[in-house]
Amino acid sequence: MDVFEVIEKRASVRQFGPVEVSDADLEKILDAGRRAPSGKNLQPLSYVVIRSKKTLEQLSRCQGCIGDASAAVCIVADPEASEYWLEDASAAAENMLLALKALGYDSVWIEGTLRRQEGFAKELLGIPAKSRLIIVLPIGKAAGASEQAQKKPLEQLVHWEKW
């Protein structure tokens, strides 16, 4: 798939069936996150890769679908390293979501429900107190058909030259 097809086909998937996620694919996904833009190139992010079924099931307390995933990538930011940590995490997450789809996997961006369980998840994963566990990307194969949510047409969103 070319990048435009990947963008069109990427969907938020919350029900996963089992799939083997290779080390090589995980490294490609992580490298896509590493290569995302970073404010002033400060690169305040780290990643925790989870393959343990037990840990994935424990993390399902943050959002149920994590327990059905075959793996997950957690995006961890150091707010002391950069004032742009949230933007950097968002850019890394999007790069990884596109890489996941290009490699034939599915995922969903988990942030909102994670915030309410961040302390629990950080303790489970041994993440330092000063760091933020800001996004979890479960990795799997959609249990059923998945389509991208309906998006507004460009005509409603774009203004040429001025508003």
> How much is the radius of gyration in Å?
16 Å
Quaternary structure annotation: single chain
Query: Which word captures the global form?
Result: globular
CATH architecture: 3-Layer(aba) Sandwich
Mean pLDDT: 97
Structural class, judged by helices and strands? alpha+beta
Main sheet attributes: strand count, strand direction, barrel closure = 3 strands, antiparallel
| Helix-residue proportion | 25-40%
For CATH, the homologous superfamily is named as NADH Oxidase
Q: N-to-C SSE series?
A: HEHEHEHHHEEH
Task: State the name of the first-level CATH class.
Answer: Alpha Beta
Q: Can you tell me the CATH topology? A: NADH Oxidase
* Count of separate DSSP helical elements: 7
- Low-pLDDT runs: none
Beta-strand content estimate: 15-25%
Describe this structure in words.
- It is a single chain.
- With 163 residues, the chain is of the alpha+beta class.
- It has a single domain, classed as NADH Oxidase.
- The chain has seven helices and five strands, in the order αβαβαβαααββα.
- Helix 1 (3-9) packs across helix 4 (85-102) and helix 2 runs antiparallel to helix 4 (85-102).
